[in-house]
Amino acid sequence: MNDQGFLQIASYLEIFYIFLVIGAAAALCFLIRSAIRKMSDTKETLAAMFLSKLSFPAAFLFISLVLRIGAVREALFPSPKFHLYIDAALIFFFIFFLIRLVDALFLGRYKRKNIPYPFPKVLHSLILGIFYLIILFIILRDITGINITPILATSAVLTMVVGLALQGVLGNLLSGISIHLTKSFTKGDWIGVDSDEGVVIDTNWRETKILDRESNIIVIPNNTIASEKIINFSCPDNKTALTIPVKASYEMSPSVIFNALYEVARDVPAILKNPAPQVYILSYDDFGVSYVLKFWIKDFEHKYPIMGEVGRLIWYKFKRHNIEIPFPLSDKLGEILGSIREKDRTASVKGKREKNFHDLINSSFLRYHEGEGKEGLVVSESAIRDLASLVQRQWYACGEVMFKQGDKGESCFVVVKGAIKGEIVYYEKGRKYKSEFMVEPGGIFGEMSLFTGMPRTATGIVNIESELLEIKALDFALLLERNLALAEVTADLVSKRNLKNQEFLKKIKELSAKDIKDSCSKQSILKRLRQFVKVSFTDHKL
Question: pTM score, two decimals?
């Protein structure tokens, strides 16, 4: 074999060694990154981020240093031309390593302070890429002596051809830079683009990825986002206003409806107190008045569950306040249904009275709880039937707070269905304690405030969706008026019960010494009950 053949074989071997070296460097980089992932336990930490950024240039720099060793270099690459290439690679990867080191230090500083990096991710990567290319061209020209002018000329023509072929890609790139420079949104913001809503999880040179409420990742090209209207629900702050329109009958006054809607906003924990919720009339329509409840939330991710909870409570509040939600009907059909409803209403009233009587007679209300007559009725069944025509049936949603400890109370409740949880906060030896109890179907809740005039001694929370009978002070007054002996019996039962619990009542800070004293005095309770009758008689006379 002649000398030219040997040179050709040596050249092929050197090319093979180059690919072998690149493979070794890539394998080393992979091993370093795997070790980093194991060390960080798959969590993104500052140390892991720092080491990950340096792994690529460090692997190639290490291999370049090994090749720089005289014996290794002569064994693998005997040609002097390849020695220049090794020197050039060593210098390039050394500068590459330094740039990555400085970049990682800056990124780590901003991450440590938990503040956004001043350059967007797309622009940051683009600047670094241009910087690496400039350094590469300088090293090729000054170290290896390669004439880079043809490369630059060829790259210019190639850039033009590629640019025409990849107009869409370049459009996405420029749109991505524009989006980041204008700071339309950042990672973690909730945005709306066209009909899509979601939280931004990533933005790169080509696209923006958002995670919607169904846990689907929506990929939107940057040029599409740049040409659409963007709604950023996280700016200028994370408070977002929501509105729920509701229609109500003309028969109910706006003030009652306003109060009911404000109660709904107050009872949903996710609704902010500041800014305060707003209620206003939207329009007067053919079949009713349109109202709007406007409120603010912080957690936009749970927009629909919060709106669902508000809508659910509106039904219960409107039901308890006898607010009718109308539905559109033609005039003729309305007249026909009106006459049918009138007949049904009469039958319905009788049915409701009978149902109320059944629920009252099977409850613990107005029954002896101890002594020889235990579980017996304090009044006759006919008196209970009279009361059944007065009480109101109410529905409460699970989680609703009926009243709070310390509130003024002028009514009590008989549990028909569901369950009410009572929470009592009391203090003993300077320490705060909480006691809980449950009132189930047949039980009575809140009667102490009705009988004694004391503030509520417990907070009432609906534990299970409940159907209740509300007995108001006026209803009870009419019962006392028709059953004069009932006041004496009730005062005796209530005073004895409170005397037994007197020491515990003293631990409730919302109760004054006078409240406790009066609640344990039969004469004070009897005086209050007789006052009920007097007020009732005056109202009837008027």
Answer: 0.58
Q: What are the distances in angstroms from CA 183 to CA 117, 123, 179, 199, 355?
A: 12, 13, 6, 15, 63
State the residue for tokens 């909480």: 434
For residues 232 and 210, give the distance between their C-alpha atoms in angstroms, rounded to a whole number: 12
Tokens of 206: 């080509």
Q: How many C-beta atoms lie closer than 10 Å to residue 215's C-beta?
A: 7
143 — pLDDT class (breaks 50, 70, 90): confident
pLDDT tens figures, 198-239: 888 887 767 788 898 888 898 888 777 777 788 888 888 888
- Rg of the chain over all Cα atoms, to the nearest angstrom: 40
Of the chain, the percentage scoring pLDDT greater than 70 comes to 72
245 strand-pairing partners: 292
Residue 83, helix vs strand vs coil: helix
Long-range contacts of residues 314-320, Cβ cutoff 8 Å, at least 24 apart: 314/244, 314/246, 314/260, 314/261, 314/264, 316/395, 316/396, 316/397, 316/400, 317/260, 317/261, 317/263, 317/264, 318/248, 318/260, 319/394, 319/395, 320/392, 320/394, 320/395, 320/396
Place of tokens 């003309």: 250
Instruction: Specify the DSSP element, H or E, that contains 530.
Output: helix 522-541
What mean pLDDT comes out for the span 326-340? 58
Q: Please state whether the peptide bond connecting residue 116 to the residue before it is cis, i.e. omega within 30 degrees of 0.
A: no
Q: What is the mean pLDDT of residues 307-327?
A: 88
pLDDT-wise least confident of 167-181, 195-209, 279-293, 449-463: 167-181
Count of Cβ atoms closer than 10 Å to residue 536 Cβ: 19
- The Cα 412–Cα 473 span in angstroms is 8
Instruction: Please determine, for residue 111, whether its predicted confidence score (pLDDT) is greater than 90.
Output: no
- Residue 371, amino acid: G
The pair of three-digit structure tokens given for residue 500, joined into one six-digit string? 């037994």
Residues in the chain: 542
